[in-house]
Specification:
With 298 residues, this protein is an alpha+beta fold. 24% of the residues lie in helices and 26% in strands. A hairpin with a 6-residue loop joins strand 1 and strand 2.
């Protein structure tokens, strides 16, 4: 089969057998030496020729990078060549080079997609983490009524133990440095939530509440678990003598694991220290206590 192409020098048509592809020949018309192109290159050259001459460039520089419609990028096969020079307006690229560039472009595109995907996943994880950190910790509300009686004729429903203190202390925990008693006694002004003493109690996992005029209190503990409760009356005192006049030594030692001066904390007020820890859950019931009549044993 003959390959038909034009001479690079005189532009006369030539026809050479396909077995001569890649070999040098002399043009029978002008004698110019040139290499026989393969079928694709020859067809491309003839197609370009049919479009007319390429626009001249003033300084003779190549037209690479222009948008001129006369410029064609043609991939040559590994087995063929265009000869000593490319036809006007043509930019030659080996076929393998085109394939390699295409593969590289695909790899870069896939890499960019995967990078964006994983970066997006990372941002979502950070957002979730921030959301979890910003969410306030769940607390458990303990409610109850602390009351007392003025005399035998008075019922506990008539008198709320106003100013009484309710403390919840986590079982088995003690602060590195014991907490001062002042500020937690019924006669003391309530401590601010951001005070040093309240922060230390919160770090321990404990909580403190004051009883209102109706005797009702609302105490929030930071998490479920076993707690021991200390209730200090605001309106009743222990008997001046006899049984119950002095604080129990064992109870003072237990309270002293958290507070530096437990005797100062209790003073002469009646108090209740739970003999064992109580498990606080969402189903925890009301915590009620009646201190009875001031000066008398409960």
């Amino acid at each position: 089969m003959a390959i038909r192409f034009s001479c690079n020098q005189c532009d006369r048509p030539l026809g050479i057998a396909s077995r001569k592809v890649g070999s040098e020949i002399n043009c029978p018309h002008c004698g110019a030496v040139q290499v026989v192109p393969n079928e694709e290159a020859a067809a491309a050259s003839e197609a370009l020729k049919s479009l007319g001459p390429a626009s001249p460039v003033a300084d003779g520089s190549p037209t690479i990078g222009t948008r001129d419609s006369s410029t064609r990028i043609v991939a040559s096969s590994p087995g063929g060549s265009f000869g000593s020079r490319a036809p006007a307006g043509m930019i030659l690229y080996p076929r393998n080079s085109v394939y390699v560039r295409g593969v590289l472009f695909a790899v870069v595109a896939i890499g960019a997609f995967l990078s964006g995907y994983f970066i997006g996943q990372g941002d979502a994880t950070v957002e979730k983490q921030v959301e979890v950190e910003a969410k306030p910790p769940e607390t458990l509300l303990i409610q109850g009524i602390i009351s007392y009686r003025e005399d035998e004729a008075t019922t506990s429903d008539d008198r709320g133990d106003h100013r009484a203190v309710v403390l919840a202390l986590p079982e088995g925990k003690a602060p590195k440095e014991r907490i001062p008693a002042r500020g937690f006694r019924p006669q003391d002004a309530p401590l601010a939530e951001d005070s040093r003493e309240m922060r230390r109690l919160a770090e321990l996992g404990g909580a403190c509440a004051r009883v209102g005029e109706s005797g009702v209190f609302n105490l929030r503990v930071p998490e479920p678990g076993p707690y021991r409760f200390l209730l200090i009356s605001g309106n009743t005192e222990r008997p001046s003598e006899g049984s119950g006049s002095e604080a129990d030594e064992i109870e003072l030692n237990s309270i002293g694991q958290v507070f530096s001066t437990p005797a100062l904390l209790l003073g002469r007020q009646k108090y209740f220290w739970s003999p064992k820890a109580r498990d606080v859950t969402a189903e925890f019931g009301a915590l009620n206590h009646d201190f009875g009549i001031s000066g008398e044993q409960e």
